[in-house]
Amino acid sequence: MPIPSALKQTVDQEIADYCDQKVPPQVLDKMRLVHQWRGSWVTLVEQRPLWDDPIRWVDSPVAQFRYDEYQRDWTLHWRDRNQRWHSYDGLPGSRSIGRLLAEVDQDPTGIFWG
Predict the structure, then answer these.
(1) HSE-up of 51 (CA within 13 Å, CB side)?
(2) What CA dihedral angle connects 113, 83, 109 and 47, to 10 degrees?
(3) d(Cα 10, Cα 27) in Å, to the nearest integer?
(4) Which residues contact 24 (CB under 8 A, 6 or more apart)?
(5) pLDDT by residue for the chain (114 residues), tens digit each?
(6) Secondary structure of the chain in HEC code, one letter for each residue
């Protein structure tokens, strides 16, 4: 069973608002924060222009949120240096994507923003 469309729409808007608030307009030519959906997973992605070709942008995934249709909640995941995703142990699943975004924003372990 896929993610309910009303929930996906709500979460999409909440993450888009987070991205818009996180990056000041005066640096949008140097950095963007976007999100990308893949099924019931949504990935928060930092984008920066290539140093030698500023027309092309490079994606750096920051965090991933996965919807569990049985629990009806979201879980937070982090990416290791080998590009593999792992469940974030610092916070249990939540029905509120905002709670997970707040954890990414605070980044108490330095695992998301470095």
Answers:
(1) 0
(2) 10
(3) 27
(4) none
(5) 679 999 999 999 999 999 999 999 999 999 999 999 999 999 999 999 998 998 999 999 999 999 999 999 999 999 999 999 999 998 999 999 999 999 999 999 999 998
(6) CCCCHHHHHHHHHHHHHHHHHHCCHHHCCCCEEEEEEECCEEEEEEEEEECCEEEEEEEEEEEEEEEECCCCEEEEEEECCCCCEEECCCCCCECCHHHHHHHHHHCCCCCCCC
